[in-house]
Specification:
4 helices; mainly alpha
């Protein structure tokens, strides 16, 4: 006589005993890999969506940054025309040229291109990047402290 656990002699039972070594969940070796793969694809998809939203937000704010830079350029140009600024005029002219190039690059480039440019510059000059970050951190610390 079979036990209830074995499922024999139980009326209306569709339970059948698993063979030895069979997994508890049918196809669980395949489903675990499938679940992991589906999870990876979902993470990639969500990462892509988040990246797209960030790029979209950056693109919408680029115009404001370009306007700010152009305002700074016009202010520096006005300051360089002053007689008192004769000694620093070459420095101001250089800064104006750099700011104009930056403004044009921001205005005409996509976010992906700008990020690729920054990554290239960081790879070429990592020490300058670290020094710049340290200087910015120091300056922000001083301003926040006050």
């Amino acid at each position: 006589m079979g036990s209830v656990l074995e499922g024999s002699n139980v009326q209306g039972s569709s339970f059948t005993q698993r063979p030895e070594g069979a997994s508890r969940i049918p196809g669980d070796e395949h489903s675990a890999g499938g679940i992991a793969q589906a999870g990876k694809e979902q993470v990639k998809h969500l990462g892509g969506v988040a990246k797209g939203r960030v790029y979209q937000r950056v693109d919408s704010r680029k115009g404001e940054l370009v306007k700010g830079i152009q305002g700074l350029v016009s202010t520096l140009e006005n300051a360089s025309n002053n007689e008192e600024a004769a000694m620093v005029r070459p420095l101001i002219t250089s800064a104006v040229g750099l700011l104009r190039r930056t403004s044009d690059r921001l205005e005409n480039g996509t976010t992906e291109e700008l990020i690729a440019d920054v990554q290239d510059q960081v790879r070429q000059r990592p020490a300058l990047f670290v020094a710049g970050c340290a200087a910015i951190g120091f300056a922000l610390g001083r301003f926040i402290k006050v």
